[in-house]
């Protein structure tokens, strides 16, 4: 599910229903904490890049974290969610329907410019510089 679709689904187009920055502020706080407390150079993966180049991205991730890449990482069984936490599974049923119905990575289509409701535009604008700073740190292939 795209960030746009998630925002629109969760907000019903109402600003008060979208966290300011769409969660990117919190994501940046987590990234900053990890770089300070756990690992100075954590793995950052861009979902669009992963969908288009899964083997290359996963190979680079595996190399960075010191595990062996296996081709089996590129495929999974459809609806294989029995091991998921029940709360997560319930939330994921809405947000990740396409993932649960898939059996592997599906390249994301290029999207045309999208008009967002005015009510959430400030929140999106607050997210853009954070997204761009994290995107610059992504695994590149």
Q: How large a portion of the residues is in β-strands, by DSSP E?
A: under 5%
Percent range for helical residues? 40-55%
Question: Given the C-alpha coordinates, what overall shape results?
Answer: globular
Q: What ranges have pLDDT less than 50 throughout 5 or more consecutive residues?
A: none
- What string gives the helices and strands in order? HHHHHHH
Class per helix and strand makeup: mainly alpha
Task: List the domain count as a whole number.
Answer: 1
* First and last CA, distance: 23 Å
Largest sheet: none
Descriptive report:
Helix content is 52%, strand content 0%. It has 141 residues and is mainly alpha-helical. It has one domain. The longest helix has 18 residues, at 118-135. The radius of gyration is 17 Å and the shape is globular. The protein starts with a helix and ends in a 6-residue tail after the last helix. The model has no long low-confidence stretch (mean pLDDT 81).
Topology overview:
Layout: H1 3-11, H2 24-37, H3 47-52, H4 54-65, H5 86-95, H6 97-101, H7 118-135
List keywords for this structure.
141 residues; 0% strand; mainly alpha
Q: In summary, what is this structure?
A:
52% of the residues lie in helices and 0% in strands. The protein is an all-alpha fold.
């Amino acid at each position: 599910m795209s960030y746009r679709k998630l925002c629109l689904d969760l907000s019903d187009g109402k600003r008060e229903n979208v966290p300011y920055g769409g969660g990117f502020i919190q994501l940046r706080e987590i990234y900053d904490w990890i770089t300070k407390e756990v690992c100075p150079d954590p793995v950052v993966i861009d979902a669009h890049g992963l969908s288009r180049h899964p083997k290359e991205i996963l190979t680079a991730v595996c190399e960075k974290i010191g595990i062996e890449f296996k081709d089996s990482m590129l495929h999974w069984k459809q609806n294989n969610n029995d091991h998921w936490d029940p709360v997560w599974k319930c939330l994921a049923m809405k947000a990740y329907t396409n993932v649960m119905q898939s059996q592997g990575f599906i390249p994301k289509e290029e999207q045309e410019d999208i008009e967002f409701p005015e009510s959430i535009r400030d929140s999106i604008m607050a997210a853009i510089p954070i997204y761009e700073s994290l995107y610059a740190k992504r695994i590149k292939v």
